[in-house]
Specification:
alpha+beta
């Protein structure tokens, strides 16, 4: 794994905003200055053995998370995780029905010397999806036309929705977000998920 310094594309702010990344600069750096959400000044390069090892790590971590959820449901340890009592029944029923999931995001610590360590698993949450599936790919094709990236998120999302066509009771799906999100992140990301579901053949409705 190599950390490579790079030169941002001219007009990159307008480019990524045109691709849907409208979140601006929600953070601050150590000096209090706005910290852009998207950074083209550095990127990481991986060797194929590192990629294969990471793939094996995340498959194992995913199965461990599912085992942990099963343990929590079977032993009814909902209160230990601060879950309100009204949610316990629906969570248990959802698990027993094997309700399908769509996607998740691992936050990992990785130094290329040891297996990846799980910091957090955000299951079916929208953040970082658009930039990883769309914006990053366009950056790569602009800066490194012959390069490749370790993800096929768009294709995998369409594949997942296609698999759910045989599981869900209707081909109609509703996608909703809250206007309370002033950044526009939920709106844009939900619209992107809606697009992938429509590509898989669902009749999608935005709310």
């Amino acid at each position: 794994m190599r950390r490579v310094h790079d030169t941002p594309r001219p007009g990159w702010q307008q480019t990524v905003e045109g691709q849907g990344l409208v979140y601006g600069s929600p953070g601050r750096d150590a000096s209090g200055q706005p910290r852009p959400y998207w950074d083209e000044s550095v990127h990481y390069e991986f060797d194929m053995p590192e990629i294969l090892a990471l793939e094996a790590d995340v498959e194992l971590l995913h199965s461990m998370c599912l085992n942990a959820v099963e343990h929590i449901v079977l032993t009814e340890r909902f209160a230990d995780f601060g879950l309100p009592e009204w949610s316990w029944g629906p969570i248990a029923e959802s698990w027993k029905r094997s309700d399908p999931y769509v996607y998740g995001r691992f936050d990992l610590r990785y130094d290329a010397r040891r297996p990846a360590k799980l910091l957090e698993y955000n299951a079916d949450t929208p953040t970082s999806l658009l930039e990883a599936a769309i914006v990053q790919w366009h950056w790569l094709t602009d800066r490194y036309p012959g390069g490749d990236q370790w993800n096929s998120l768009h294709e995998k999302l369409v594949e997942r929705w296609s698999a759910l066509r045989d599981v869900l009771p209707t081909p109609q799906l509703h996608f909703t977000w809250s206007g309370a999100d002033a950044t526009g992140e939920d709106n844009v990301t939900t619209a992107y998920l809606q697009e992938t579901a429509a590509e898989a053949g669902f009749d999608t409705i935005a709310l």
